[in-house]
Design a protein that fits this description.
The complex is a heterotrimer. By secondary structure, chain A is an alpha/beta fold. Chain A is 42% helix and 18% strand. Chain A is built from 17 helices and 15 strands. In chain A, helix 8 (158-163) links the parallel strand 4 and strand 5 (170-175). In chain A, helix 5 runs parallel beside helix 14 (343-366), helix 6 (111-120) runs parallel beside helix 7 and helix 9 runs parallel beside helix 10. Chain A is globular and about 70 Å long. Classes of the chains: A alpha/beta, B mainly alpha, C mainly alpha.
Chain lengths: 445, 388, 312
C-alpha cells in the first residue's frame, strides 16, 4: 500500500490534523473514511455552512439493487454498504447539514424504468444497479435526465471505454473491470510460474460480463505465458448444475482454471468441483469474484489452491489488527447484518461516499448547494477515502483503487471464507492508461 | 340522415366508414377514450402517474390486441408472442447499432419486416396445430429465439444493443427536430411527446384495421375456424392458410409494438422483450382487459405493466399484489376488466335499487368460502387416513 | 474419454431425473384435470424451501457421519426429510384445487392460465415472507457424497447424483405401480378417460381431482426437495426454468403420459449435457430442449407416447 493515508495509520503516528488534511478536510469525509475515532469526537472541523443557500429538506436518494433471489448474494451486500454509509453520514450531521433519505428498490430487469421512476419521484441522486446490461441501458438515459447516478457495480469493459466515453452524469464506483481479470492472470503466473502454465480453461457465465472477463484473462495470460486455452464453458447465469463443465475440466486437466462465476454460480461450481475432485485435475483455480460469496461457502468447498480477487476492498487488508477503520467497519457490519462484508459491500458504501464527499466538497467550494452539473464536474477526478483506502473517480468515470487477490480459505473464527497471502495491485499495474482500450493496452505489453 | 348516420333497430348509429357502426353510447366512449389517450402526457404531468410506463403499457397492449385477434377469433392460445415483440425491438436495435440507420420511419419498417418474416415462418409451422400443442409449440419457438439471442455476440448477449446512432436518438419523421427548431422544445421532451403521439396515431389506425379485419369475410371465417375446424373445412374455408395469415397478421402487431418499444427505451435487451414470460404477460394483458373486446387488451396492457414495473416502489410484496389483482379479475370480472363493465353496472344498478341484495352477497360469499374450506379439509383427511 | 462420456451421461441422467420429478406432477395434473398449472414451478420451489427448514431440523438430531455406515443413516434421514417436505405440499395442493382451481374447470383454458399465473406470483411472495429474499442452502450435499456408491466400482462420481438417479427411478416405478395396480390409481385413470361414466359408477370426481392435484403438488415439492439437498441453494425464482422445461418434457413425452415424461426427461437431460460435453456446442445448451421439442412436435405431434387425457 503506498497511499499516504493508510501508511500513516499503519505507522501509528497519525496526527489529527494530518488525517483531516489527507481525507479532504471535512468531518464527513473523515467519518466515511472510518477515521472518526482517530480524530476524536470534538469535531470542530464541521464545515456545515449555515447560510440560506442550502436547502432545509433532506436529500432524497434512490438505490436499485438485487434484493431477491440468486443475485441478492451481491445485491444485498451493496444495499448494506449503502445503508452503512448513509447511517454514518446522517450520524455526522449529513451532507452540509442535510440528512440523506435512501429509498431502496429491487432492480429486477427494469433498471431503466427504476431510474426514470426515481427521477420522476424527485430523487437528487441515484445509486446502482448491479446488472451490467441494465447499467448499459441506463447510461444515455442518465445523461438525458441529468440526475447523477453512481453505479454500485455493473459494467462491462467496453461501457466507458468505447460505448459512452463522454458521459457526464453517469459514474461507477466499482473498479475498472479489466483490473480483476488481469490480476487473476498475474496472480496465476506468480503462483505457478510462467513456465509451468501450459494450458488453461475457463468457466464463465454466458453473458457479456463473463465473455469480457474471459477475453481479458485470455489476453493477459497469453501475454505472460505460452499457455493455450483447452476449454471454455459458458454456463447459464443461475444454472442449476455445473457438472458438465466440471467433467470437461477433469478430462482436459488444465494447469489453470479461470472463472468469473459469481454469487450462487460460484458456490455451485466449487461445491460440485469438490464433489468431482476437480482440484485433483488442475493446479490452480483463479476467480475474480469468488470471494463475493464469502458468506455462502461450506468448509469443504474451499479445499485446494483456489485464489480469489476481491476488487477494491478486502476487509482484512490492511489487517484489522492495525487498521481500526476496517476493524470498526467489520464489527459494525457483523453487528448490524451478521455477514462478512465483501467487495460488493464496498460497492454500495463507496458509491454513496463518492457522491456525498463530492457534494460536500462542492458546498465548501461554492458556499451553496451545487447543481447536478457541478457535482458531476467535481466527481471527475474526485479522490476520497473509505475504510478500504483511497479511491479516485477518474476522468473516464470509473472508480480506481487497489485490487486484491489472495488464497480463499475457510476460517472458523469468522465463520466464512477469508483471503490469505493477499496481494495488492495498484490500479496502474492492472488497468490501461486513460484513452487506451484494455485489449490494445494488454497487447502492447 | 347524413351519410355518417344510419338507422338500425330503431336506434341511430354512427357510421364513420363501411362496416364500422357505433351506437350513441359507443361513440361517447370512443371519443372519451381518444381524448384520454391524447391527454395522457397532461394527466401524467399533473399526477404521480408515470408517462413512460403508461406509454410502455400501451405498446404491450398493442401487441396484446394482435394476440387477441388470434385468441378471440380462432381460439388459439399463443404462448410465444414475445417472439414478434422481441423481433420488432431487435429489428430496430440491429439496424441502428449495426447499420447506423437513424430514421425512425426506416427503423420501424425494419421492425415490421423482421416480425413479418418471422411470423410467416413460425406461422407456417404451427398453423396446423391446436390447443395446448399450439401454445407449447409457439412457446418453443419463442424460447429457441431467446436462447439464440442471449448467446450470440451479434446481439451483444444479455447486455443488448443500443438504439442510438452516435449517441443520438433516431429522428421521428423530422417532427421532433421541427419542434425543437420552431418551438424551442427541449429535445428529449420533443422526442418523447412525438413518439407518444405517433404511438397513439398508430394505435388508432391499428384498432380500426382490427375492426375491419374482424368484420370482414376473412374475420368471419376465422370465427368459424375457432368454433369448429372440421366444419369450417367442410364449408370450404382453407383453414390452415387462414390461420397462417391470421398468425402473421397478429405477429405484425407485435412487431410494430416491439419496434416502438425499442424507440421508447432506446436500448434492447433479451429478457424484457423476448423471454417466454413476456409472452405470458402479453397473453394475460388480453385476458385481463377482456378478450371479447377490441380495446380491452390495451387497458390490460397498461394495468399489468403498471403493476409489474412500479408496484415494487410502493409495496414490499409486489408479486402478491399483482397476483391478487389477477385473481380478482378471474373470479370477480369473468370477462376481463372492460368485458365485464356492462354486467357490473347492471349489477350495481340492481343493488342500488335493492340494498338488501348486498347482505345476501356477503352471506353467499362467506358460505361458499366455508364450504370450500370444509371440502378441502375433508378431502385431505380422506387422502391421508382413507375412507372409513 | 470413455470415463468422461460416462460422467456426462450420468450428469444428464441426474438432471433429467430431477426434471422428471417435477414434470411427473405436471403431467398427472394435466392428464386428469386438463389444467396446465403455471404455479407448478413454485410448488417445486416451495418444496426446496421447506426441505431447508425440515432437514436443518432433522440433521440437528443425528450426529455428523464418521464413516460409510453413519453416512448412509444420514442420507436416509435427509431423504425422509425430503419426503416430509413434500408431504406438506399435499394439503397445500388439495387446498389450491378446492378453493381456486375447482371453480374454473368449466371456464376457457386461458382463465386457468391466468389463475395459475396469479398463484405463481402469490407463491413467490409466500416464500419471500417465509424464508426471506436471500437464497438458502441446506448444506448436506458434501455429507451425502460420503455415502459409498460409484467408488465401489472404481469410478469417482458424486454419490448425491447417484442417489437422485435412483430416487427418480423409484418415483417413476411407484407411479406406474400406483396407476396400474392400485384401486385408487385405476379410479383416477377412469376419471381421466370419462368423467361422466366415473360419476355414474359412484366415483366422486371432486375428490379424485383434489387427490390428483395434491399428488402433483407432492411430486413437484419432492423434486424441489431433492434439488435443494444438492449443491445449489433454494432461491425465489428457482421455479421458472423448471416450469418451462416441464412443458417441454410433457410435450415431448406426450401429454398425460408418465412413461413419456420419464423418457423425455432423460432425453432432455442427457442431450442438454451432451450438447456441451460431447458435441461441444455450448451455444446450443439453452436452446437444445426447445429445439428437440419443436422437432418432435413437427414430426410426431402427439409426442412420443401421446394419448389424449389418459394416464398410462
Amino acid at each position: 500500500m503506498n497511499d499516504p493515508g493508510i501508511s500513516a495509520a499503519e505507522e501509528g503516528s497519525i496526527e489529527r490534523r494530518d488525517i483531516l488534511k489527507l481525507v479532504g478536510g471535512s468531518a464527513l469525509a473523515v467519518a466515511l473514511a472510518g477515521c472518526t475515532e482517530l480524530v476524536g469526537d470534538d469535531d470542530d472541523a464541521t464545515t456545515t455552512s449555515d447560510n440560506g443557500d442550502i436547502p432545509d429538506e433532506p436529500i432524497e436518494a434512490g438505490l436499485q439493487t438485487f434484493r431477491e433471489g440468486a443475485p441478492a448474494v451481491l445485491g444485498l451486500q451493496a444495499e448494506y454498504g449503502a445503508e452503512t454509509a448513509v447511517r454514518r453520514i446522517n450520524a455526522n450531521g449529513g451532507v452540509a447539514g442535510r440528512q440523506i433519505e435512501l429509498d431502496i428498490v429491487e432492480e429486477g430487469t427494469e433498471q431503466l424504468e427504476n431510474y426514470q421512476q426515481f427521477v420522476e419521484e424527485g430523487k437528487e441522486v441515484t445509486f446502482g444497479p448491479i446488472s451490467s446490461g441494465g447499467h448499459e441501458a441506463m447510461v444515455p438515459e442518465i445523461d438525458d435526465q441529468g440526475v447523477v447516478n453512481v453505479a454500485t457495480d455493473g459494467t462491462v469493459t467496453t461501457l466507458y471505454e468505447e460505448d459512452y466515453p463522454d458521459t457526464t452524469y453517469s459514474f461507477r464506483f466499482q473498479n475498472h473491470d479489466v483490473m480483476e481479470a488481469l490480476s487473476a492472470a498475474i496472480e496465476a503466473v506468480e503462483i505457478l510460474g510462467a513456465d509451468n502454465i501450459e494450458t488453461y480453461a475457463g468457466v464463465n457465465p454466458n453473458y457479456a460480463f463473463g465473455e469480457d472477463e474471459m477475453a481479458i484473462f485470455r489476453a493477459g495470460i497469453e501475454q505472460l505465458t505460452d499457455a493455450e486455452e483447452v476449454y471454455n464453458g459458458t454456463p447459464d447465469l443461475g444454472a442449476p448444475d455445473m457438472s458438465t463443465h466440471v467433467t470437461n475440466i477433469n478430462s482436459e486437466e488444465p494447469d489453470v482454471v479461470f472463472t468469473s462465476c459469481w454469487g450462487g454460480d460460484a458456490t455451485l461450481l466449487l461445491s460440485q468441483g469438490q464433489a468431482n475432485n476437480m482440484l485433483d485435475n488442475t493446479e490452480l483455480v483463479v476467480g475474480p469474484v469468488l470471494y463475493g460469496s464469502a458468506n455462502d461457502y461450506e468448509e469443504g468447498d474451499l479445499e485446494g489452491p483456489i485464489y480469489s480477487g476481491s476488487r477494491n476492498f478486502y476487509w482484512d487488508q490492511p489487517s484489522t489488527d492495525q487498521w481500526s477503520p476496517a476493524a470498526d467497519l467489520f464489527d459494525e457490519v457483523q453487528d448490524e447484518y451478521g455477514v462478512i462484508p465483501t467487495a460488493h459491500f464496498m460497492s454500495g458504501y463507496g458509491a454513496v461516499t463518492a457522491w456525498a464527499t463530492a457534494a460536500d466538497k462542492a458546498v465548501r467550494l461554492l458556499g451553496r448547494w451545487p447543481e447536478q452539473e457541478e457535482i458531476a464536474m467535481i466527481l471527475e477526478e474526485h479522490g476520497f477515502y473509505t475504510p478500504a483506502g483511497y479511491h479516485v473517480m477518474s476522468t473516464d468515470h470509473q472508480g480506481y483503487s487497489n485490487a486484491h487477490f489472495g488464497e480463499i480459505v475457510w476460517s472458523d473464527e469468522v465463520g466464512g471464507a477469508v483471503l490469505e497471502d493477499v496481494n495488492v495491485y495498484a490500479p496502474e499495474e492492472v488497468s490501461p492508461p486513460p484513452g487506451m482500450t484494455s485489449l490494445d493496452w494488454i497487447g502492447s505489453w | 340522415m347524413s351519410r355518417f348516420l344510419v338507422e338500425r333497430d330503431g336506434k341511430t348509429h354512427f357510421r364513420p366508414m363501411k362496416g364500422l357502426e357505433l351506437t350513441a353510447g359507443q361513440v361517447v366512449l370512443t371519443l372519451l377514450g381518444i381524448v384520454a389517450l391524447f391527454a395522457v402526457p397532461d394527466i401524467t404531468s399533473a399526477t404521480a402517474l408515470s408517462f413512460s410506463i403508461i406509454h410502455q403499457g400501451i405498446l404491450f397492449g398493442l401487441a396484446a390486441v394482435g394476440l387477441n385477434l388470434l385468441l378471440r377469433h380462432t381460439e388459439l392460445v399463443s404462448f410465444g408472442h414475445a417472439a414478434f415483440f422481441g423481433a420488432g425491438a431487435y429489428g430496430v436495435a440491429v439496424l441502428s447499432s449495426h447499420y447506423e440507420v437513424s430514421s425512425g420511419f426506416l427503423l420501424l419498417l425494419g421492425a415490421i419486416a423482421v416480425a413479418t418474416v418471422l411470423a410467416l415462418v413460425i406461422g407456417y409451422l404451427v398453423a396446423g396445430y391446436l390447443d395446448i400443442y399450439f401454445a407449447l409449440l409457439t412457446l418453443a419457438f419463442n424460447q429457441v429465439l431467446f436462447a439464440f439471442v442471449l448467446q450470440s455476440g451479434y446481439f451483444n448477449y444479455n447486455d443488448g444493443l443500443s438504439v442510438r446512432v452516435g449517441g443520438d436518438r433516431p429522428s421521428l419523421l423530422g417532427i421532433d427536430q421541427w419542434l425543437v427548431a420552431t418551438l424551442g422544445t427541449d429535445p428529449i421532451t420533443a422526442y418523447n411527446y412525438t413518439l407518444y403521439y405517433l404511438t397513439v396515431v398508430i394505435l388508432l389506425v391499428m384498432l380500426v384495421v382490427t375492426w375491419k379485419i374482424v368484420n370482414s369475410p376473412f374475420g368471419r371465417a376465422l370465427d368459424a375456424i375457432g368454433q369448429d375446424r372440421t366444419r369450417a373445412q367442410f364449408i370450404g374455408i382453407p383453414v390452415d392458410r387462414y390461420v397462417w395469415i391470421a398468425f402473421t397478421l397478429s405477429g405484425i402487431y407485435g412487431g410494430i409494438a416491439g419496434g416502438l418499444f425499442a424507440l421508447l427505451q432506446l436500448h434492447v435487451r433479451p429478457e424484457p422483450v423476448l423471454f417466454v414470460f413476456v409472452s405470458g404477460e402479453i397473453l394475460f394483458m388480453a385476458i385481463l382487459g377482456g378478450i371479447g373486446t377490441l380495446v380491452g387488451p390495451i387497458i390490460g396492457g397498461i394495468v399489468l405493466i403498471y403493476l409489474l414495473r412500479l408496484a415494487r416502489f410502493y409495496v414490499e410484496y409486489y408479486h402478491a399484489l399483482t397476483g391478487i389483482v389477477l385473481l380478482l379479475v378471474v373470479f370477480v370480472l369473468p370477462k376481463g376488466m372492460l368485458g365485464t363493465l356492462p354486467e357490473i353496472s347492471a349489477g350495481l344498478d340492481r343493488r342500488r335499487q335493492d340494498p338488501t341484495l348486498l347482505r345476501d352477497d356477503v352471506t353467499t360469499i362467506g358460505a361458499s368460502i366455508r364450504e370450500r374450506l370444509y371440502r378441502a379439509v375433508s378431502t385431505v383427511r380422506i387422502i391421508i387416513f382413507g375412507v372409513k | 474419454m470413455v470415463e468422461s462420456l460416462v460422467a456426462h451421461t450420468l450428469n444428464g441422467l441426474y438432471y433429467g431425473l430431477i426434471l422428471f420429478m417435477i414434470a411427473s406432477g405436471m403431467t398427472i395434473i394435466f392428464g386428469v384435470l386438463g389444467i396446465l398449472n403455471l404455479a407448478h414451478g413454485e410448488l417445486y420451489a416451495l418444496g426446496a424451501f421447506l426441505v431447508f427448514s425440515i432437514v436443518g431440523f432433522l440433521t440437528g438430531l443425528v450426529a455428523e457421519p464418521t464413516g460409510h455406515f453413519t453416512a448412509i443413516i444420514f442420507a436416509v434421514v435427509v431423504l425422509l426429510g425430503s419426503l416430509a417436505a413434500a408431504a406438506v405440499l399435499l394439503p397445500v395442493g388439495a387446498t389450491l384445487e378446492a378453493i381456486f382451481v375447482r371453480p374454473i374447470y368449466e371456464r376457457e383454458d386461458v382463465y386457468q392460465l391466468l389463475l395459475t399465473y396469479a398463484l405463481l406470483l402469490i407463491f413467490i411472495d409466500v416464500m419471500k415472507f417465509g424464508w426471506g429474499t436471500s437464497p438458502v442452502n441446506t448444506t448436506v450435499y458434501s455429507t451425502l457424497n460420503e455415502v459409498p456408491t460409484t467408488e465401489l466400482v472404481g469410478f469417482s462420481y458424486p454419490s448425491y447424483n447417484i442417489i437422485v438417479i435412483l430416487v427418480g427411478t423409484v418415483v417413476f416405478a411407484w407411479l406406474v405401480w400406483f396407476f396400474d395396480r392400485t384401486k385408487t390409481g385405476r379410479i383416477v385413470r377412469a376419471t381421466a378417460i370419462n368423467r361422466e361414466m366415473s360419476t355414474a359408477i359412484g366415483v366422486s370426481t371432486d375428490r379424485t381431482f383434489t387427490l390428483v392435484f395434491a399428488m402433483g403438488a407432492f411430486f413437484a415439492g419432492f423434486g424441489g426437495a431433492m434439488a435443494s439437498i444438492g449443491p445449489g441453494p433454494a432461491f425465489l425464482e428457482m421455479g421458472l426454468d423448471p416450469l418451462v422445461l416441464s412443458f417441454v418434457i410433457i410435450v415431448i413425452g406426450g401429454l398425460g403420459s408418465l412413461k413419456g415424461a420419464f423418457v423425455a426427461a432423460i432425453l432432455v437431460g442427457v442431450i442438454s449435457r451432451w450438447t456441451v460435453g460431447v458435441f461441444n456446442l455450448p451455444q446450443l445448451e439453452l436452446a437444445a430442449p426447445f429445439i428437440l421439442m419443436a422437432i418432435i412436435l413437427l414430426l410426431k405431434p402427439e409426442g412420443l407416447y401421446g394419448t389424449w387425457g389418459e394416464i398410462e
